[in-house]
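Deliverable D5.2: sample structural annotation.
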Amino acid sequence: MISALSPVPTELSLPFWSAAKEHRLTVQTCTQCRKLHFPPVPSCTRCTSEALHWQDVSGQGRVITWTVTHQSYHPDLATPYAVVLIELVEEPNLLMYGNYRGALETLAVGTPVRAVYEDRPDDWTLIQWMP
């Protein structure tokens, strides 16, 4: 069953979602200049090369900013919850976002976090962030 929270992978994003199902965090890497990319792109934003491959990363990062939602937009999302923007340790400005799974009072700019994986009943995996 597909819910309103289910991703709809594209040809470009399918490797990311497939890795998530295996509890791996992966990003694109340019084989020419080595720049890491997320979200996925058809060509490198630094050198314009189309020679990109997928590379696993550590899943470690730090909180850049967040927002706390108090209104329920979907029955699967208990409120309040925080959506965080994370800078991954592998490269400055390599950013990802997701739900924060720690206590809201522990949120601060610079909080170290790690990726955690929530296997969903509709056969996909959500990447979330834990302190």
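Annotation notes: The two ends are 31 Å apart (CA to CA). The chain has a mean pLDDT of 93.
The annotation will be released with the project's public dataset once the embargo ends.
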